[in-house]
Amino acid sequence: MSSTPYNWELLTEHAAFSPRDTSEGIVFRDKMWLSNAYHHGNVLVRDLWNSTDGTNWSQVSDDTPYGGYSEMVVFEDRLFAVKESVWVSDDGEDWTKILDKTPFGMTGYGELIVYKGKMWQIGPGPEVWSSTDGQHWDCATDAAACGDRRSSATMLFDDKLWRIAGNSEQENSPVEKGYPNFTTYNDVWCSTDGAEWTQVLEHAPWAPRMWCRGRAYAGALWLIGGFDNANHTNLGDVWYTHDGITWTEFISDPVFAPRHEPTLYTAHDSLWVVAGNTWPVVNDVWRLTLPEGWDSLG
Q1: Mean per-residue pLDDT for 231-240?
Q2: Which end of the chain is more exposed for a tag (fewer CB within 10 A), N or C?
Q3: Residue 76, in any domain of the structure
Q4: pLDDT tens-digit profile of 110-148?
Q5: For residue 257, what is the domain's CATH number?
């Protein structure tokens, strides 16, 4: 466990946007952008918000034109929204469709990451695709070593692509209590080319999970929350690592309620946890700010 004296801070319990999970978060021109949302009853909210401070949020759109739950990145100083189609914007307000149908189609629980001058669509299945323009996509592999994995935490850290935890659509033994046809994992994978993936850790010290989130922050890779399918419960734990192998739990008081599918940002020298599903969905905003050399300070 971490012995640092730094804690999560609740900035607002109820932000201007509606309670939600599965929103896409991206930092663009010094603002945090929050796109689309799941609400109970399988309701898709097609809005777009932004904020400079995490407390005050402005609505940019209440009817986004791009595909629902599109993955988003900043690439060549433009916003890209990618799902079944590809849309581009210079300012987040006006959008242009540049591709009617991607080769990976309407996938869910994958992740779009900019790496080595390309956009990479990783998962949710075993496929990995890349593009330099959003219009032409190349398949790096259709059989990643981690298998037909979805709902993982996927991020860029230490100049590598990382894919952590998640689930496969197969029954575990013993059967997991939440979704009985799912098997969840607590392993760690990385890649330097999107095609070849190395398992750096088969069983991390944290519980197997899906619908978790991760980000690089303050010289470490962070894993936050998720859903413990084996025990049918949300998770609120926070872990970090410098190498993917040795993990330390970060203990804070206060800390956010256990949740799955929150939205994470690294912005303004802080790590942010926004909204998520605590049963019910919520619209709170939390921030963690660590100084240089934080992990060596008592």
Answers
A1: 98
A2: C
A3: yes
A4: 899 999 999 999 988 899 999 999 999 999 999 999 999
A5: 2.120.10.80
Residue of 264, 263, 271 whose CA lies nearest to 290: 271
Asked if residue 206 is part of any domain, the answer here is yes
Domain that holds residue 122: 12-296
Domain count, the chain: 1
pLDDT per residue as tens digits for the range 180-207: 999 999 999 999 999 999 999 999 999 9
In a domain, 3, yes or no: no
